[in-house]
Every structure is written in structure tokens, then in C-alpha cells.
From TrEMBL:
Residues 209-236, 413-434 are annotated as: Disordered. The keyword Transmembrane applies. This is MFS transporter. It comes from Streptacidiphilus fuscans. The chain crosses the membrane at residues 21-43, 49-72, 84-104, 183-204, 243-266, 272-292, 304-323, 329-349, 356-378, 384-408. Residues 416-426 have a biased composition (Basic and acidic residues).
């Protein structure tokens, strides 16, 4: 079993790294629009098109494109850093145009132009969101000195992200309450510009997170040189079976959490479920903080399997006692497991593109879990959802365990010189040779 040992790197040491405080503050500001945007965008589109149905569909397409194209944007920004500014400016401009259409419609100028243009602009906006999280995690990995400090840095980053997405909707609702959806969305666009104006110089001052594998025997060096000279591109991480298993485990955790949240709403109503869902966020923050301060006897791959098993057991409690009193500790612990799983997944990758794929897998898992929970509730009621929510991470646990065993056997068969390399270094080496 993977056992924690006290004595990991401290958060004070992480924040003492060169440019670390600037990266944390600028990163929080650049992330803030993503926490704020949901309500202002939905209600601004509703004002522009005059229909909640059309607005909801547009927001759904925006979210889908934003998630699916995230790895592509991260890869582009990682290879050509100048494109990050272009994405940020274009994203802000499109949001400002939607805000202007909403303000025109609110003033009585709604017509065929606003009703047709606003959904198109929402689709375009889904293509453009700059990859803040993946780039920040890659930079933290480059700044950290050793694996323990890298774990603490990624945990701190995960806590910051969870906090932004917990507070953001409240701030977005407050903006709409004191102004209007159009003005609130315009404020979001302004924060996009401000956030990236602050983040871009910090990213420029930090080293690019390019993994460098150790020296290998001459045949491997020759093969790598030949591959580079032939113009071969870096291999997509999706060509790795182990990486696909990792994405599946992350998607399973996202699906289980979203299923439990919907079951709580369906089972006890919004007024009771609200504090329970807040407990999920609080559990994520606390779990991330504790996880980052621990060192572990086992590898991150083994931890992924253990966390899947823990997640499955956590969701069983409401099956034994279906009441808010049992759901409260369940969702608190589930939030902690979710953030710990994401942090562990981020530890297994080096590049912004791979980190973005983890985000995409999690978001798709959330979407699939919500859809599946709706069907289960309609068929068997909300209590049955917790049974499915428990099964999903347990299956992911089994897949991770099998993947870890296969990886261990392959590691035992590697030459002695390669056996000391990390999995991320081996992945980088194979990418260069493909």
C-alpha cells in the first residue's frame, strides 16, 4: 500500500523560488475570468438572442470546444509563446463583442443581427481561451527543485485553481446583480486583458519546461539525431497506452464527482445540496494542501490506483445511509480525493499539452457523469447514482493497477542504464525518436 510520510517540501519554500510569487499572483488573476464567465456569458447570450434554450446551447458548444481544443492551444502556446498574447487578445475581443450585443439588445435593439451573431461569437470564443492552467503547471515543474518540491508546487497550484472556481461564480453573480449581464461580461473581458498582461512577463522570465533525457548509448543518440534531422515532430502523448489509462482514471474521478453532486440535488433539493456541494470544494482545497505536504513511499502511478480505490469506497457511504448527514462527509472526502488524483496525474507529465489533456479528460468525465446520473435518476432514483459513482473509480483503480504492473515488468526488462530514468524522461526520449 502507498503510505504517506510527513516531511514533504513546504509551501514557503515553493513561494521562495525565483519568480514564484509573481507566477502565483499573476496566474490567479489570469485564471479568474474562467471562474467568473459562466453566468455572465449565459445571461448575456440570453439577452442577445432572447431565448434561454439558444443561450444554453451556445454555452454548451463553447464549453465543449474549450475543453476539446485545450491540448491543441497548449501545444501551440508551448511551441510558439507569442501566440499566447494573440489568444488572450482575441478571446477578450470576442467576449467584448458579445457583451456589446447584449447591451444593445437590453436597450431595445435586439433583432436578426444580434440573434444570429451572438451564438456564432460564442462558438468562436470556445476556440480561443488561453491555456492558463497547463502553462502554469509546466512552469511550476520547471521552477521546482526536485520531486517533493514539484509536488508541493502543483498542489499549491491546484488549490489556487479550486479556489478561483469556487469563488468565481459568486463574484459573477454579484457583478450581474449590481450591473447587468452585458456589463459583467465586459468586465470579464477586461480581466482577461489585465490577467494576461500580468502573466506574460512572468512566463517570459521563467525557463521553458523542456524535459531533457539523460545521455544514452551512441545508437540511441544517433537515432535521435536522425529523427530530428528528418524533421520528425514530437509524438502526441495520446499514442502512449499508459497515458490513455491515466486519462481514463482522471475522467472516472470527474464523472463520479459530478454524479454524486447531481444525486445530492435530486435527492434533497437545492437548498440542502448547496452546502453539500460547497463541502466538495472545501474538501478539494484541504485535500490538496495536505497532499502537497506529504512524501510517499510509492510512485505516482501506484498512488493513482490507491486513490481510485479510496474514491470508490467513499461513495459507498450514502448507499448504507441515504441522508444529508452521510452525504456531507462523503462529498468532503470525495473533493479531497478528486484534487489529490489531479495533482498525482499532473506529477506524471511534463508538458503543457499533456497537462491540458488531463484537464480535457476531467471535463469530459464531468459531462458524461452528469448525463449518466440523469439517466440513472430517471430509472432508479438518486440513491442508485452513488452505487454507479462508486463503481466508476473502482474500475479506474483496476485499470491503473494493471498498467502499473505492466510498466514494472517493462522496467525490469530495460537495460541497466535506462532503468534509472524516470517515466517522464523515457516518454520524452520515445517522443524524440518517433
Amino acid at each position: 500500500m502507498s503510505r504517506p510520510v510527513q516531511g514533504g517540501a513546504s509551501y514557503r519554500a515553493v513561494l521562495a523560488l525565483p519568480h514564484a510569487r509573481g507566477l502565483a499572483l499573476a496566474g490567479a488573476l489570469a485564471r479568474l475570468p474562467y471562474g467568473l464567465i459562466s453566468l455572465p456569458l449565459l445571461l448575456a447570450l440570453r439577452e442577445a438572442v432572447g431565448s434561454f434554450g439558444a443561450a444554453g446551447t451556445s454555452v454548451g458548444v463553447y464549453g465543449l470546444l474549450s475543453a476539446v481544443l485545450g491540448p491543441w492551444r497548449a501545444r501551440l502556446a508551448e511551441r510558439r509563446p507569442a501566440t499566447l498574447r494573440l489568444l488572450a487578445v482575441a478571446f477578450a475581443v470576442v467576449l467584448a463583442l458579445i457583451a456589446a450585443l447584449a447591451l444593445l439588445a437590453a436597450g431595445g435593439a435586439r433583432g436578426p443581427v444580434t440573434e444570429a451573431a451572438a451564438p456564432v461569437l460564442a462558438v468562436v470564443a470556445g476556440i480561443l481561451p488561453p491555456p492558463v492552467g497547463p502553462l502554469l503547471r509546466a512552469r511550476w515543474g520547471a521552477l521546482a527543485d526536485g520531486e517533493a518540491q514539484r509536488q508541493a508546487a502543483l498542489s499549491l497550484d491546484a488549490v489556487a485553481e479550486s479556489t478561483v472556481f469556487s469563488v468565481g461564480p459568486l463574484l459573477g453573480g454579484a457583478l450581474i446583480a449590481v450591473t447587468s449581464p452585458g456589463v459583467a461580461l465586459a468586465v470579464v473581458a477586461a480581466i482577461v486583458v489585465l490577467g494576461f498582461s500580468s502573466l506574460a512577463p512572468v512566463l517570459a522570465r521563467t525557463a521553458a519546461p523542456a524535459p531533457t533525457p539523460p545521455a544514452l548509448p551512441t545508437p540511441s543518440d544517433a537515432a535521435r539525431t536522425e529523427a530530428r534531422s528528418s524533421g520528425a515532430k514530437r509524438r502526441s502523448p495520446l499514442r502512449s497506452g499508459g497515458f490513455l489509462v491515466l486519462l481514463g482514471a482522471v475522467a472516472a474521478v470527474g464523472a463520479a464527482g459530478s454524479m454524486a453532486e447531481l444525486a445530492a440535488v435530486a435527492g434533497w433539493g437545492a437548498s440542502v445540496a448547496g452546502p453539500l456541494l460547497a463541502g466538495f470544494s472545501v474538501g478539494g482545497v484541504l485535500g490538496g494542501l495536505v497532499y502537497g505536504r506529504l512524501t510517499w513511499r510509492r510512485s505516482p502511478r501506484t498512488r493513482m490506483a490507491v486513490l481510485g480505490a479510496v474514491g470508490g469506497v467513499v461513495y459507498l457511504l450514502p448507499l448504507l445511509w441515504f441522508a444529508p448527514a452521510s452525504a456531507a462527509p462523503t462529498l468532503l472526502a470525495a473533493g479531497a480525493v478528486t484534487d489529490a488524483t489531479l495533482i498525482t496525474a499532473y506529477l506524471l507529465v511534463d508538458t503543457a499539452e499533456s497537462s491540458a489533456w488531463i484537464n480535457t479528460a476531467f471535463n469530459l468525465g464531468v459531462a458524461l457523469g452528469t448525463s449518466a446520473a440523469g439517466m440513472v435518476i430517471g430509472q432508479d432514483g438518486p440513491r442508485a447514482v452513488f452505487a454507479v459513482a462508486a463503481l466508476v473509480p473502482l474500475l479506474a483503480c483496476a485499470a491503473c493497477a494493471v498498467s502499473t504492473l505492466i510498466g514494472a515488468r517493462r522496467s525490469a526488462a530495460r537495460p541497466t542504464q535506462e532503468r534509472g530514468m524516470t517515466d517522464r524522461q523515457l516518454d520524452a526520449m520515445s517522443a524524440d525518436l518517433s
